[in-house]
Structures are given as C-alpha cells and as structure tokens.
Amino acid sequence: AQARWHIRLALLLRGEEIRHIAVVNRSRVRAEELVAELRETGVPSHVDLEVFEEGEGGGGGLRERVEEADVIFTGVPSTSPLFPAEWLMSERARGRGRYIAAIGSYRLDMQELDPVLLSEMAKPSGLFHELVWNGKVAVDSAEACLIEAGELVKAGIGREGMLEVGQLAEMREGGSPRGMEDWLAEGFVVYKSVGVGVMDIAIGSKLLELAGEKGVGVRLEDF
After folding, report:
1. Exposed, middle or buried by CB within 10 Å (0-12, 13-18, 19+), for 142?
2. Which one in 49, 128, 138, 212 has a CA-CA gap of 20 to 30 Å to 184?
3. Which residues, at least 6 apart from 18, have a Cβ–Cβ distance to it below 8 Å?
4. Nearest one of 29, 14, 194, 203 to 99, comparing CA atoms
5. pLDDT tens digits for 37-92?
C-alpha cells in the first residue's frame, strides 16, 4: 500500500517528468499485482513501469538501479539495510543529487537505509557536504524519530541533525536560508518518516473538508 500510493502521488504531482519506475519486492507475484493495479488506475504512456528482479534479463542489476535513481522510496519494515552505503558513496554515484524517502521502518531495531550512509551525509566535510544542506536529514517528527527511527539513531544523528517538515515550510515562507533551495531542488535529500498521529488527523480533516466542497461522499453526523 505504501508503494502504491507513493507511486500514484508521484505520478500525479510530477508525472510529466517521470520516465521510468522500477518496483523491487521480495515477492515477484505481489510486485506484479501492484504494477497491474497501477496500470488500471492509469499510468502515462511515456512512463516505463517494470517489476525488477535481480539476475533477470539485461539492463544492469539492482546496484545500477539504485545508483541511477533520481528518487527512491523504501517502504519495508526491515531490520537490515536494503542496500549497502557504498552503492551511493562510490565515485560514480556520489556526485549527483537524489531524493530518498524512508517510510517503512518504525522501530529502533529496524533500518532501511545504511547508517554508514547517513553518518557520512551528516559530516560537515564528508563526501556529500556539497549536496546536503548543513548535514540535515528531513523528518516528520524529530521527537518520534529519536525513539523510532533505527537508522538515524544508529548513525548517531541527534535532534540537531534533523529538520522537521514543519520547520522547513516555515523557513521557506520566511525567506529560505542560503543554500536551502538549491539543496531541495538539486541536492541529496533524505526524508525519514515514522508516522505521527496528528498528521493523520490533519489530513483526514482536510479530506472531509474537500469532500464537502465537492459534494461527494456521505456524511454521518452522529457517527
């Protein structure tokens, strides 16, 4: 479900810029079901949508997919990194910006991203210092991540290394600090989300408001 909705939202918001989507999953059957669902809901004709399986056909392996990806969404409750840090720390891969959203892990014993990669990103003079603004990792809630985001804790990233999306929005409204807009547009941005109840309430309220404006759905006043 996480993969389906992130792909659908990406296509909705930036569909004209997307050319290729690779779905990687432990179960090929489930991945194929996901791709079939996406095609039923509508995928632009210019978008190549594939189910990737290591060792199948040509076109390079998983490492090449990761190195070349502009955007990576990880939605796996994994207790070990989904790929090693060196894949993005190599000379070939580290010179370009990309966006990674890690949304699957939610406990301290879980980690989707390699802590070595995150630790290197946070270093003021590390391999990524020109691509990461002030060594920051974007998060939904710093307080929640400190007790739920295993990869951030293992990487030694504390509150000072996190930038909440609410803070980010406020800073941009007030005139972005030097380098922030370049980081968001062209840099290496990692967003870690563990899920916060107040966000669910806010989004749910907005959806109800939108449904009322459009006159759709059924409102149960006493529910």
Report:
1. buried
2. 49
3. 10, 11, 44, 47
4. 14
5. 999 988 999 999 999 887 655 556 899 999 999 999 999 999 999 999 999 999 98
